[in-house]
Design a protein that fits this description.
With 327 residues, the protein is α/β, with parallel strands linked by helices. It contains twelve helices and twelve strands. It binds nicotinamide-adenine-dinucleotide and thymidine-5'-diphosphate. The site of nicotinamide-adenine-dinucleotide has 31 residues, from helix 1, strand 2, helix 4 and strand 5.
């Protein structure tokens, strides 16, 4: 197949491209925001720099394409709280432009990469694909807007569109604004690890390669018009995650710093993944202890990847967000 993969200069998309590049012909469309980097992509993959909301460019790039996999997003909740406009543009307008191209060009398959956050927070039990969407941050609200457009478009126009909702991903090449890489890099620098509120919020951690394998089976065999949850095998409280990182990096608990809570902070995310398991035979292969150890090793061994980030835009972002400088 010839695939147009959008947003693949970021964390998850670049992992996905590594997984499928030998099997399919891949072209990447990425705007190269602060989170997108050419170096994330493996050699030999064509990158077109541009935005998914650019209608002319998208029509040009979808000629002769068999499938589109849309990873393009603003992906950080804290940044959406500071300013949600780019989130609305990319998640809603961008998705709408891609869907029009699917119809106009007769693209055979469309996969929307989405998130458990569209369901909102759940104190007990797990969300299934029939749970109502009830997003609570500007990030998740705009992602839900994109998902609803995809479902409506499949229903109305009969295009073969599917949605894949992943839980919190972690692994190599994640921009360090997110909890795990932020804490790994701070711990490696002997810097404090900021924990929001009481640190008892729960996330369902999914190793990035497991998510990408899930996306692949849904693209190949998912039923048109359907959504599939892809949840990680382990749930942990944030404080447990931070403690594990401290152990793996040889620091001590005095590095933990409780800071002001995130406004509107979702308490717990949890996904039931029975549908993708039963229909498509997907299983997570990497448990949290193994995955987090691999992730710490990757950041320890790849200073040339993170050094330019820590000395660039991220430094300013960190000062704005945490009111102090990075060490
Ligand atoms: P990321 O921030 O690392 O990468 C996003 C990429 O999209 C970047 O390369 C960026 O340059 C590009 N991009 C942004 N706006 C664009 C636009 N308008 N046009 C073209 N490219 C644009 O994000 P990620 O963590 O890799 O997330 C990828 C997808 O997976 C997103 O749709 C996100 O909602 C979803 N998701 C993420 C997680 C997670 O834990 N990170 C979990 C579930 C789902
Ligand atoms: P994050 O990695 O931003 O993912 P999401 O908000 O999409 O779940 O955050 C994961 C959890 O960690 C979330 O409950 C917020 C919390 N968190 C902190 O406690 N401190 C931090 O510095 C960050 C970035 C997140």
């Amino acid at each position: 197949m010839r695939l147009l993969v959008t947003g693949a200069a970021g964390f998850i998309g670049s992992t996905y491209v590594r997984l499928v590049k030998d099997e399919h012909e891949v072209v990447v469309l990425d705007k190269l925001t602060y989170a997108g980097r050419r170096e994330n992509l493996p050699d030999g993959v064509e990158l077109v720099v541009g935005a998914i909301e650019d209608r002319e460019l998208v029509l040009q790039l979808t000629e002769g394409v068999d499938a589109i996999v849309n990873f393009a997003a603003e992906s950080h909740v804290d940044r959406s709280i500071a300013d949600q406009n780019a989130f609305a543009r990319t998640h809603v307008i961008g998705t709408s432009v891609l869907l029009d191209a699917v119809r106009q060009r007769g693209v055979g398959r469309y996969l929307q990469v989405s998130t458990d956050e569209v369901y909102g927070s759940i104190e007990e039990g797990s969300f299934t694909e029939t749970s109502p969407l009830d997003p609570s941050s500007p990030y998740s609200a705009t992602k839900a807007g994109g998902d609803l457009l995809v479902s409506a478009y499949a229903h109305t126009h009969g295009v073969e569109a599917v949605i894949c909702r992943g839980s919190n991903n972690y692994g190599p090449r994640q921009y360090p604004e997110k909890l795990i890489p932020l804490c790994v890099l701070n711990a490696l620098h002997g810097d404090t690890l900021p924990v929001y509120g009481d640190g008892r919020q729960v996330r369902n951690w999914l190793y990035v390669e497991d998510f990408c394998r899930g996306i692949n089976v849904v693209l190949e065999r998912g039923r048109p018009g359907e959504a599939y949850n892809v949840g990680g095998p382990d749930e942990c409280e944030n404080i447990e995650v931070v403690q594990r990182i401290i152990e793996l990096t040889g620091g001590d608990e005095s590095l933990i710093e409780y800071v002001e809570d995130r406004p509107g902070h979702d308490r717990r995310y949890s996904l039931a993944s029975d549908k993708i398991r039963a229909e498509l035979g997907w299983e997570a292969q990497v448990g949290f202890d193994d995955g987090v150890a691999r992730t710490v090793d990757w950041y320890r061994d790849n200073e040339p990847w993170w050094e330019p980030i820590r000395s660039g835009e991220y430094r300013e972002y960190y000062e704005r967000q945490y009111g102090r400088s990075l060490l």
